[in-house]
Amino acid sequence: MTETEEFQELRPLLFSIAYRILGSVGEAEDAVQETWLRYQASSAEPASAKAFLSTVVTRISIDVLRSARVRREEYVGPWLPEPLLTDPYQDPARSAELADSLSMAALLLLERLTPLERAVFVLREVFAFGFPEIAAAVGRSEGACHQLAVRARRHMDAGRARFEADRKEREELAERFFEAFREGDVDGLAELLAADVHMIGDSGGKAPQWAPRVLGAENVARVLAAFVPLVARGGGVVESQQVNGQPGAILRDRDGQVLSAWALDVLDGQIQTIRTVNNPDKLGHVGPVADAWAALRMASQAHRP
Q1: CB 171 within 8 A of CB 91
Q2: What gap in Å lies between CA 278 and CA 101, rounded to an integer?
Q3: How far apart are the C-alpha atoms of 85 and 79, rounded to whole Å?
Q4: 267 and 141 fall within a common domain
Q5: What's the total number of domains in the chain?
Q6: 123 and 219: one domain?
Q7: What digits encode the pLDDT tens for the residues 94-145?
Q8: What's residue 84's pLDDT?
Q9: What's the CATH number where 258 sits?
C-alpha cells in the first residue's frame, strides 16, 4: 500500500478524532490536511501509519483547540459545535460510543475539559486507544494519561445527557415535531416538548436570531409557531435529517440554500433540548449558505398587504 493509500484509508478516523476534539468541521478538516503535509514531509517510515498519523492529528488538534478556546470566550451569544450530518468513520464494534460522542450535548460537555483531558478522553473512551498510544499522542506519561482519563470521565459522567434508547421512537417523535412546526400547530408542538425544554440558538451575531435561549414548553412553542409564517412566506423547506447522530433538520430557503441546522435531544417521549446553528460560518460544509437576512426581508415583504 502506498503512503497516499494508507493516508486515505485512515482519513475518516483522523477526521473523526479531530472533530471530537475541536467541535468544528472546518478546523478538523484543516488538521487532517496539515497531518497529511507532515506525513509527506517526514523522512522516517513509521512502524505504524495509524499510530503516527493519530499522534500528529491529535497534537495539531490540541494546539488548535488552545487558541480556539480564547476565541470562543469572545463569541457573540451561545457557542454550539458545527453540525455534522455524517460521521465518515464507522466501527460496528464501537457504534454506541461513536454515536454518543457525536451528539451536540456530548461535544458541549467536552468543552468543559482541558485540551489534554479532551484529547485523552476522545482517544480512550471513543476510539479505545491503549494508554501507550495515548501517552505518545499527547506527550505525557502513561500514569499522567490515566489520571487525565479519570478526571475527564468523572466530568463527563456527571453531566452526561441521556437520550431515548430506541432510535426509531426518537425519529418518529422528531418527525411529529417538525410536522407540527410546518403547520404552525402550537398545541401540537407543546405536547411534544418537555416542561423545562431549552431552545438554544447560535447565530454568532451573523444571522437573525429570535433569542439566544428560550425556556419552557409554552414559550418555545410560541416562538416556533411565530417563526413558521416567516418560513412559509419565504418558501422555506424543513428537511428532516440526522444532525450529529440525533434527530434534526436542515432549514433551507426557496432556492435550497441552507439557513439553519437543528438538532433535538429526545428523552422519555419528549423533546428536552432544541439547538439551532444559524451562523453562516458554520454551515458552509452542509451546502450553499443562504443570506438569512435577505430571506427574512423577503418573507416580511410578502406579508405586507
Answers
A1: no
A2: 22
A3: 18
A4: no
A5: 2
A6: no
A7: 988 898 899 999 999 999 999 999 999 999 999 999 999 999 999 999 999 9
A8: 98
A9: 3.10.450.50
